[in-house]
Design goal:
single chain, mainly alpha, 1 helix
């Protein structure tokens, strides 16, 4: 045998409870909507920052390529510097020896 328990509530109490539950759900939905809006704003900000970083990275890569080329050019020029310095030094020494009087006489 089963004993049945009967509980009676007034319609007013049930409606108040339902109304409160609906308010609670609405509050949670409002909070959720605000969070979603905040996430969208944050995502837009991050997208903008990533775009800016991408542009700066492209600039750095371009400058790096320019510097690598300049260094390569300087290394090629370096092989010319030594003969030029030797030639100038030789010319200066030759001129100096010609200007100095002969001390052997």
């Amino acid at each position: 045998m089963s004993d049945q328990v009967t509980v009676t509530y007034s319609l007013e109490e049930v409606l108040k409870e339902l109304k409160q539950e609906i308010k609670d759900v609405n509050t949670k939905l409002d909070t959720l909507q605000k969070d979603v809006t905040d996430l969208k704003v944050g995502q837009a900000t991050l997208t903008e920052k990533v775009g800016g970083m991408d542009k700066r990275l492209e600039k750095v890569e371009t400058e790096q390529a320019t510097m690598v080329k300049a260094i390569s050019d300087l290394q090629g020029f370096r092989s010319l510097i030594v003969p030029i310095v030797v030639a100038v030094a030789t010319a200066l020494l030759t001129l100096l020896f010609r200007l100095v009087p002969d001390f052997t006489h």
